[in-house]
């Protein structure tokens, strides 16, 4: 290192021959000035000269890799070392050109383009598939190399010193660079410090200082993008399959949010990839990564949706107490994913390049999870409705036409209350108030329609039977009104009460009509008095129509 340092002033003095006071050198200096004037007046000649010089330099650079088999990511670091070596070896020679020509910068740009093709070749011809962490490590090394070139040619101010990333964290673990990396870092630091000292001594700026117009960002690193994004998507999809496969569909007692572990683990993996990417780039790569997040979350929503489709038909779904808890966990997890995905989109839109900000949107993903929530809640409703089958059959078997007196509400009403008492408190404890009220309203609507339809499945109903059934209807209404108090849930009392009364009013209207007179009694009374009926002189005042219940349909389908 000492020999190389001592030869530097000697080499520099060779190319400062313009200051030598020797006749032959003076003649050469005059010829050089004439050449410079010629080049200024004939730009095409200057371009041809620079092109020929660059072509020769690039040929010399490419020969270093002639016949080399570039199939491993480790070769990338060797390529960067060769560029730095080539710059250090030839930077004094390049200074024979006027600084305004920016020949060194142009040469480095061309070498970087060649290097980009070499790195692309490595990415395509890799024999072993790398991990995402390994690709990110090489991408980070490439970005640092581009930053070093930018610093070298005055294209920007470094945010931190070269070598500060020696103990950088990659994929959650500390890694140390190899010997060649450390050697390169400190050589670059030494060269930068040496140039600074020379500038302070001579008062002459380096030719690379051109007001920050030089930019190397993305000139090599952009080739990683087509390979990195598919790897990340594949890794996240594998993570999705793993967390769903390992899902126990239960929660720990310490989990206050009542959400599935798979949803938390999936977002942890997404956040991990997002944090790595945003530390490296905030342009197209981050935008494409966001699209990957969209696809992964939609796939997770689809898995939750089909989890709800197991067992039963669209009319009847049998659910146990454990199934009800799992469905509630799915509701909460879908709500968590819906909110968190929206927060993610908002954060990405604030840091990404404004050109891509309009495309950062999670509305489709949120719609998917909203569909999961709706289906889950309706599955709970249909599951409870299926539990009422025995009670509805018992109601239809009662001899409503032979009842002699009206007593307390019927036994099937007690059965419905018992079912609700066993299920509703658990659901109210697991669901948020908003979704619990939605569930209650759908349950009241479903039970009210089914009770109304079941009236027409009953056989002949006497006036006493109608009175007893009306009492049962009022008991059912009170049960529905008191459901929220089973779990001490606070719902909108006024709106819910009106909703329940509206659902039960149809059954009450039919039964109140039957309590005044049955169809058979009306017919008997008509036949008894028909012979003595004559043309009335005055129309009856305020005639009261007798409501006649519709004929029982052959099949009643209740759509929710």
TrEMBL record:
Residues 30-247 form the Vps53 N-terminal domain. InterPro entries: Vps53, Vps53_N. GO terms for cellular component: cytosol; GARP complex. GO terms for biological process: retrograde transport, endosome to Golgi. This is Vps53 N-terminal domain-containing protein. It comes from Arabidopsis lyrata subsp. lyrata (Lyre-leaved rock-cress).
């Amino acid at each position: 290192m000492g020999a190389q340092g001592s030869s530097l002033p000697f080499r520099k003095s060779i190319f400062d021959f313009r200051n030598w006071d020797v006749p032959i050198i003076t003649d050469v200096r005059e010829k050089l000035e004439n050449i410079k004037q010629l080049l200024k007046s004939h730009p095409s000649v200057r371009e041809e000269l620079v092109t020929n010089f660059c072509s020769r330099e690039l040929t010399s650079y490419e020969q270093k890799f002639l016949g080399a088999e570039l199939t491993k990511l480790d070769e990338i670091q060797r390529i960067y070392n060769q560029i730095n070596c080539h710059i250090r070896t030839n930077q004094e020679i390049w200074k024979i050109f006027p600084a305004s020509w920016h020949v060194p910068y142009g040469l480095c740009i061309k070498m970087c383009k060649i290097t980009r093709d070499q790195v692309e070749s490595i990415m395509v011809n890799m024999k072993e598939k790398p991990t995402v962490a390994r690709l990110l490590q090489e991408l980070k090394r490439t970005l640092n190399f581009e930053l070093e070139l930018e610093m070298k040619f005055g294209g920007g101010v470094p945010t931190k010193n070269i070598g500060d990333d020696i103990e950088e964290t990659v994929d959650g673990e500390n890694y140390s660079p190899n010997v060649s990396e450390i050697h390169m870092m400190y050589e670059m630091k030494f060269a930068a410090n040496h140039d600074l000292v020379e500038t302070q001594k001579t008062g002459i700026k380096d030719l690379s200082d051109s007001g920050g117009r030089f930019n190397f960002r993305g000139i090599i690193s952009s080739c990683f993008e087509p390979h990195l994004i598919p790897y990340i998507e594949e890794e996240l999809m594998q993570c999705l399959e793993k967390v769903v496969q390992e899902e126990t569909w239960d929660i720990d007692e310490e989990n206050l949010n009542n959400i599935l572990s798979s949803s938390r683990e999936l977002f942890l993996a997404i956040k991990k990839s997002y944090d790595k990417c945003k530390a490296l780039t905030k342009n197209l790569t981050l935008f494409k990564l966001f699209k990957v997040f969209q696809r992964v979350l939609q796939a997770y929503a689809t898995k939750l949706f089909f989890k709800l489709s197991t067992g039963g038909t669209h009319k009847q779904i049998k659910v146990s107490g454990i199934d009800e808890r799992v469905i509630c966990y799915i509701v909460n997890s879908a709500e968590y994913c819906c909110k968190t995905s929206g927060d993610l989109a908002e954060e990405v839109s604030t840091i990404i390049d404004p050109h891509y900000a309009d495309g950062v949107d999670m509305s489709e993903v949120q719609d998917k999870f909203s569909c999961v929530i709706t289906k889950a809640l309706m599955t709970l409703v249909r599951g409870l409705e299926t539990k009422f089958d025995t009670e509805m059959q018992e109601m239809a078997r009662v001899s409503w036409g032979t009842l002699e007196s009206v007593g307390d509400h019927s036994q099937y009403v007690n059965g419905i209350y018992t079912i609700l008492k066993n299920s509703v408190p658990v659901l109210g404890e697991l669901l948020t108030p908003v979704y619990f009220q939605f569930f209650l309203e759908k349950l009241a609507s479903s039970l009210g329609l089914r009770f109304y339809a079941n009236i027409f499945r009953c056989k002949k109903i006497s006036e006493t039977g109608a009175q007893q059934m009306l009492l049962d209807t009022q008991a059912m209404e009170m049960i529905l009104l008191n459901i929220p108090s089973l779990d001490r849930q606070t719902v909108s009392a006024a709106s819910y009460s009106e909703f329940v009364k509206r659902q039960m009013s149809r059954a009450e209207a039919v039964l109140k009509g039957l309590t005044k007179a049955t169809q058979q009694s009306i017919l008997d009374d008509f036949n008894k008095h028909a012979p003595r009926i004559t043309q009335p002189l005055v129309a009856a005042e305020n005639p009261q129509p007798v409501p006649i219940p519709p004929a029982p349909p052959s099949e009643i389908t209740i759509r929710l």
